[in-house]
Amino acid sequence: MDSGDTAWLLTSAALVLFMTPGLAFFYGGMVRSKNILGMLMQNIFAMGIISVIWAVIGFSLAFGGDGPLIGNFDYAFVYDIATGPGMAFFAFQMMFAVITPALITGATADRLKFSGYAAFIAIWSVLVYSPVAHWVWDQGGWIFEMGALDFAGGAAIHINAGIAALAVVAVIGSRRGHGSEPMPPHNLPFTVLGTGILWFGWFGFNAGSALAANGVAAQALVNTHLAAAAGMLGWLIIEKLKTGHATTLGACSGAVAGLVAITPCAGFVGEMSPILIGLTAGIVCYLALQLKERLRLDDSLDVIAVHLVGGLLGTVLLGLFADTAINADGADGLFYGGGLELLKDQAVAAAGVLIFSGLLSYGIAVAVDKTIGLRVDSDSELIGLDQSQHAESAYQA
Question: What's the total number of domains in the chain?
């Protein structure tokens, strides 16, 4: 990498790190006021613990060696990275590792015990995230070798975190009063602020994944913006048709749905494809909320509908819209003369991550719940996480 590429990658790493506090505000505005510090803390804590784990062992398991399932210890304790993959790449990938488990917190809002959460994400980052990152992005990983594409993390991040969120919710159950008492967002301006930070940071997330300051990075940045815009419009159109109102929360959720769906596709598609992908994501992810209601699943802030469904959608749609005229290192999808081969590979990759992460995440959640506990007790939940877990209040009476 020349100095310009290195500068862009370091800038992108900073942009991706900024997404984690953005996510904290995005989620924090949607919880009740007694739980906002609990939500903010869960997110910023990931910046601390996951970064250290990444340096000690996570990066090496993801990008060391050339085995199909997991890396080795070549780069453990930050050994030899500067002369191997490079520090800029290490830093950039570290920010991905940080935000991925933080995504889970939206599904489990209002009821996670902080010590249990800390133990879960620490174990999850080593046993689930690093192996999946190896599969998808390391040249020896089985998904990479198979030929499936994931430009910036549709499978490695969004499907991975989305199915983990579902697994944890299955273990801890619903919030006290779920379905019988209103639980409206307490500060939607925070959610709008968080959306803006996420949208901004996503330019580094996707365009930085080109690993160079080149035409692919420019295409990925434009695709990212167009998909977010179309995702917002798709969500609002169907929300207006079904409920009679286009809401601020819907605008934010639709934009994030578009961002999620374009993530695996960002550097492999062009022309009108990002708009079609984003528009589809806004509509489909909104409709996925109806399934949540029917199943009475307490995914508090719609992580499963937006990240799991959006990640699956983007991963599969790439098998239709990928175009080697945009990126010669990719492949042609069905709509660009590539036949069904890429679509099949995308489906296999999505299913592999879904099954592995779902089963192992459930096992980790059960183990943590049976030992130190994963959910707060009823009284602590009633008081709120701010006081019961951190002895603080965001707002003074």
Answer: 1
